[in-house]
Amino acid sequence: MLVKDESVRFGVKAFKPLGASWAIRQALAARWAERFGEPLPENVFEEPGALARLGRMTFAAASDGNHGRAVAWTARQLGQEAVIFMPRGTAPARVAMIESEGATVVVTEGTYDDCVRWVDRDARERGWVVISDTAYPGYETIPTWIVQGYTTIFRELEDGPFADPETPAADVVLVQAGVGGLAAAAAWHLANRYGPRRPRLVCVEPVAAACFLESIEAGDGEPHPASGALDSIMAGLDCGVPSLVAWPMVRDTYDLFVAIEDRWAEEAMRAAAREGVVSGESGAAGLAALLALLRDPALGEARRTLALGPSSRVLVLNTEGDTDPEHYREVVDAARA
Ligand SMILES: Cc1ncc(COP(=O)(O)O)c(C=O)c1O
Predict the structure, then answer these.
(1) 143 touches ligand 1 (CB under 6 Å)
(2) What is the extent of the structural domain holding 52?
(3) How far is the CA of 285 from the centre of ligand 1 (A)?
(4) Got the DSSP string for 71-119?
(5) Does the pLDDT of residue 249 top 90, yes or no?
(6) In this structure, are 211 and 299 located in the same domain?
(7) Which residue's alpha carbon is at the smallest distance from atom 14 of ligand 1?
(8) Last residue of some domain: 132, 163, 183?
(9) Fewer CB within 10 A of the end CB, N or C, for the chain?
(10) Tell me: the pLDDT tens digits for 140-194?
(11) What residues act catalytically?
(12) Are 155 and 109 found together in one domain?
């Protein structure tokens, strides 16, 4: 099994800045071109103060944690402000993590999907630049840039095990989905690089937030809201509505959609820890689905669809480290209790 470990990315413990930083760079370039009629200068990020010509900006986002930290982290690198709306029940550690980047955090009484709507509404009134990782009607460009940014993960693999452009190093790739941006990036990159020889792709969600699986099951080709309670411990995946940009790419490319219970994530976090890999709740979801596919008799047919067996070469993405350290320790130490 291959593991692409994103738990140490840029010191923020998750892959998310790959999307937010690229999207913000592109948004600044668009703004610069509109205002000054010329391309964003190459050295603008090295020259202190060069960006000041654009004036002060506040970047705003809804987030379960990691995307918000990524937006806040990027804003801080650029000397700009960030405001992040978070859903009810957000772990205090995730709030603190974002505040440590100098951002303002608003913990709301709603779900992640409510936060997406509220950020959009408030941004109009206050002139914030919305950096949403999910696309909705009338808002698709920035989420597309975020998906592009995530493809870096797969591009980096070409410097390692995926160096051969003809034959991928994995037969099966498991990708965890919240709004589906990461899953879309995997589809985009692997289908472009390998065409029909691409690995089989598995979209992994919590049972409590299975908007892709349920949309596929609906069978009308349209995205539908999840019926679950959006209360999985896999907080980054607790999204109730597929991103409009991600949905068609994921729908048309993935070979299998699975939804897993939280206990599989806990087991995967412990299994990763035994191998010396720090894998948080959402980070462990790909491995969790692999364990479920191998062990759960109810998933026998899915296992056969993937032709999963002892000689299968599988890639999983560890998309986050211990972003909620207290809960991480509770889960991992439970094995020793
Ligand atoms: C750790 C982690 N993994 C995976 C995902 C899923 O990414 P997406 O929302 O693009 O599907 C998220 C989303 O926040 C996340 O935080």
Answers:
(1) no
(2) 17-132
(3) 10
(4) HHHHHHHTT-EEEEEE-TT--HHHHHHHHTTT-EEEE-SS-HHHHHHHH
(5) yes
(6) yes
(7) 236
(8) 132
(9) C
(10) 999 999 999 999 999 999 999 999 999 999 999 999 999 999 999 999 999 999 9
(11) 16, 64
(12) no
> How many separate domains does the chain show?
2
**Percent of the chain with pLDDT strictly greater than 70:** 99
Mutate to test the pocket of ligand 1, among 9, 13, 16 (most ligand atoms within 8 A of CB): 16
* Residue 70 dihedral angles phi and psi, to the nearest 5°: -65, -40
181 lines ligand 1 (CB under 6 A): yes
Q: Is the pLDDT confidence value at 336 over 70? A: no
DSSP of 257-275, one letter per residue? EEEE-HHHHHHHHHHHHHT
Cβ neighbours for 309, distance < 8 A, ≥ 6 positions apart: none
Same domain, 202 and 91: no
CATH number of the domain encompassing residue 152: 3.40.50.1100
In this predicted model, what pLDDT tens digit does every residue of 69-126 receive, in sequence order?
A: 999 999 999 999 999 999 999 999 999 999 999 999 999 999 999 999 999 999 999 9
Domain finish residue from 74, 99, 132: 132
Give 274-300 pLDDT, tens digit per residue. Answer: 999 999 999 999 999 999 999 999 999
**How far out from the chain centre does Cα 300 lie?**
28
